[in-house]
Amino acid sequence: MVALGTSLPELAASVVAVRRGQRDLAIGNVVGNCLLNLGLVLGVPAILVDGGLPVPAAAVALDIPGMPAAVVALLPIAFTGFAVARWEGGLFLVLYFAYTGYVLLAATEHDALEGFSSVMVSFVLPLVVMTLVAVSAHELGRRRERRERRGPGGPAGAP
Predict the structure, then answer these.
(1) Distance between start and end Cα atoms, the chain
(2) What is the pLDDT of residues 63-111, one digit of tens each?
(3) Which of 4-8, 25-29, 46-50 has the lowest mean pLDDT?
(4) Of 33, 39, 25, which Cα lies nearest the Cα of 5?
(5) What's the rounded Cα separation, in Å, for the pair 24 and 18?
(6) Could you give the CA distance from residue 144 to residue 56 in angstroms, rounded to a whole number?
(7) What is the rounded radius of gyration, in angstroms, for the C-alpha atoms of the chain?
(8) d(Cα 13, Cα 7) in Å, to the nearest integer?
C-alpha cells in the first residue's frame, strides 16, 4: 500500500509529461521513483532495525527472481529504438496485474492459487517468452537489413 501511495503521484506526473511530449521527464520520473523506493524506503528501515530486515520466503521465491526477469523482458525495447509501443505497454500492464493477483492469492492462501500458478507457469510465461523472442528476432533482422542497405561506406546516421 505504501508503494502504491508513493507511486500513484509519480504515475500521474509521468502521464502528464508524456501527454505534453516530455517523454524523457516521464522515464526519469519512473526510474527515479523506483530507485528511491528500493534504496531509501528499503535501506533506511534496514539500517534502523537491529539485525536488519528479514526477507520473507515469498519475496525470495517470486519478487527477487521477478525483478531480473522484468529487466530481461524490457531488453527488446532497446532493439525498437528505445520506445515502448502500446502493445508492449499493455503487455507489461497485464503482467503487473497477474503479478498483483498472484501476490494477493498467496497472501490470503486462496484455493485458486494453485490453479492460477499453474496457468501462469504453463501458459502465460511461455507465451510472453515466445513473444519477446519473436519481437527481438524481428527487430534484430530489421536492423541488419538497414545496415546492409546502408552498405559499408554509408553514413553512420543513415536509416
Answers:
(1) 46
(2) 777 777 777 777 766 666 667 778 778 888 888 888 888 888 888 888 9
(3) 4-8
(4) 33
(5) 8
(6) 45
(7) 20
(8) 10
